[in-house]
Amino acid sequence: MIRIFHAMTLACLLATPVQADAPEWAATSAFEAPPGAAPGASFAGTLALQTTQMSVQADPADGMIQTPWAWWGIFDFLAAQDPDGAVPLFELDATLFPGLPIDLVISDDGDVVPLERGVLRAPVAQRTPSFWELVASPGRSWELTGDAEQGWSRAAFPISLVQSQEGEAWIGLASFDYREGETTPLRVQLSSMSAGGFIFWDADFDVAAWAEVPFTLAPLEVDAGAIVAAHAAEMADRRPAKPLSELGAAFGAAAAALDPAGTLAVAVLSDGTLYMDAVETPFGPHPYPRDMRVGVWSVTKSLIPGLAAMRLAQKYGPDFLDTPVVSWFSEGDEFDYLDETARARWQEVTIRHALDMSTGMGATGYDPNWAMENLNTYAWSYSYALPDQIRAYFNVGPNPDVGGPGEAMAYIDQDMWIAALAMERFLKSKEGADATLLGLLEAEVYAPIGAGHFVSGTGYTETGAPGFPFSAWGALPTIDILARAGALVGNGGKGPDGSQILHPDLVAGLTASADYGLAFWRREVTSDSGTTIVPYMSGSGGNTVISLPNDMTIVVLGRDSYNVEISDEAAVALIEAARAVRPF
Prior knowledge:
The protein is an alpha+beta fold.
């Protein structure tokens, strides 16, 4: 029998939090081992969390949207898809912490390792009343030493509240104290510091939240030794970190010139070292900044379909890129052409066109595509069932502004999704029905470059397991994953061991012109030494990953607002700072 231990007498909880009105235990210092602390006791168990009301402090106070799906006013079609017994869509509450299970192993050395590093969620029919789902990341445990704490250990680890169909994340921390047969509730604190979106658009709107979440503890039968060993190997491969200032004054000036209200972090991977400064939160500096999961919106386009296309081309040749998209789907069974004019143009659209967002189909650009009256886009992006999404995607006619595919780019998010889905079907034709695009990326792209545990929001499944990624948004990477992915592109598609992971000609093509292509942006940078085309990944909220030809990658994480952008001048200043360190 596990007894829940509620007494909050622990001395190291008594740090003063930065966030006004938050309890003392919410300060980030309470989630970090004191200097010289001994590792906590080993542990293995499932924390079956209860859905819990959070204390939410919003600024301005009337800006908090408690039931986002109802607030938007356009999701009646999705509410109608709620299965029997599901918590109604319009009642899902953004002020509730989700009651989901977390499986944890804690090593003798004090490493806290969640078994599942992806999105923790339930099937739609069994979803919690919370709007949110959950991602847990590795942390640390340590012995407590106060007079009232004898025999107790504390485990602390980063968490993010996320939503599978969206791209934002509330970043935060969780901790609980434990000893044989006893635990405290899980203490959580969170803030809307990652680039917002679905309900948090404004850089002037801030949210902080906290709660003590009750849980029951269940035994966990796993090979703890193997889990601990795998995590130790992962940490051994982690690049060392240094302050950004050690790269020189030019980088400090360029980083300082970014909008502070819209910038969460700046990091530079150079010669195998990650340079970055502290990540500030309303509760103090984040103690595990390299393990926090953030939403990066359209950077996902490069991380999923972009890298997948170049990996598949390396394995099987690039010819699949020029196959018609419709050849991977079944007319009549899966979709119908809107009319004969649509049929004629759809049959010309290739996977490459979709990756370039130049299909010549559908809306004329981003704003008309996502206009609230264009319900077909919302039916594609939010429907629970993949067949419904496929039918909605093809339910459009030609873009009237162009004469055919490949003529001009129009920013249509769903083109990335269809490109990824067609590529997954190509992959299955080569490797069998069990092959998935996310599986390919994890095993053959991210793990080989030391960036394993790639996480993305996906469509729902009957079991709650990952479905198909939205591919235009939804990736939830760490700073390290972003830096290493950018370095892979900057290194010509070669991994750290020199193996060719991505198709070299396609990677080289990213620097051939300043046009958008293969899910990457390109920027032309001119200096005394000439003109260079620099490929980069870009997502709303100011999220940017710049791949440079001098073994340097720049990562900028947006803060708190979907609408922040990095100006061309600010981006060039960062690139020139890198050039000052190592000319190219």
